[in-house]
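Review form for a predicted model. The reviewer records the input and the model, then writes brief findings.
Reviewer: anonymous (R2)
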Amino acid sequence: MNEFDQEEEFQETREPIAPEETQSIPEQGDQDISAVDVAIPTLEVDIPALDDSEEIPAGGFEPYQEGDGRAWYVIHCYSGYENKVRHNLEQRIETMGMKDKIFDIVVPTEEEIEVKEGKRRTVERRVFPGYILVNMILSEESWYVVRNTPGVTGFVGMGNTPTPLRPEEVSQIIKRMEAEAPRIKVTFKSGERVRIVDGPFNDFRGTVSEIDMERAKVRVMVNFFGRETPVELDFLQVEKT
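Model under review:
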């Protein structure tokens, strides 16, 4: 399942705002928005949990900064327009003088290797299509600037309240973005016919019997001298027929 198959529950219709109207962040009494500890299920990523002793990597983008109120928030936009929305928001931050409240905008991406027609190629794909991360100090002004940027359909959160990412969620996203080895796109599944494109069984065809995602290995049943023989291969050594 795609990490954001549930994105529809966060989408909201964007209505034109008349000049005399005023929007504000829904009130929550004395509750500190940066302290809301609510899990965001749609942001769960397929990365092993970090040990308590593991530090958040340096560089990239920073998680919470103690004392100044900044945090990472997730905004939803139209899928495929992430970079355009980021550009629009950067322009609004500049023209509206909000650099002291909105600090960074990130469209998480990762490298992925895919095999097509026997050829390997590395492509850059978005980790969370339709979502952008914004590091900001949440206030009525900063919320208004982000929320009313062309292409932004809303913040991710509980109801109408933007919910900040937790440090461990930010750390997982950083780890995924900074991974040295590109992810391998798997286009086949158990029971499907595949063709071996590399190694001693090159150009043999067989049926996938097992897929090991952790080791990036696939077991294929190949007809060898009239017998079904299991052959273990790397993901990049086979392609869907």
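Findings: The longest helix spans residues 82-95.
Further findings: Confidence is low (pLDDT under 50) at residues 1-66.
Recommendation: see findings above.
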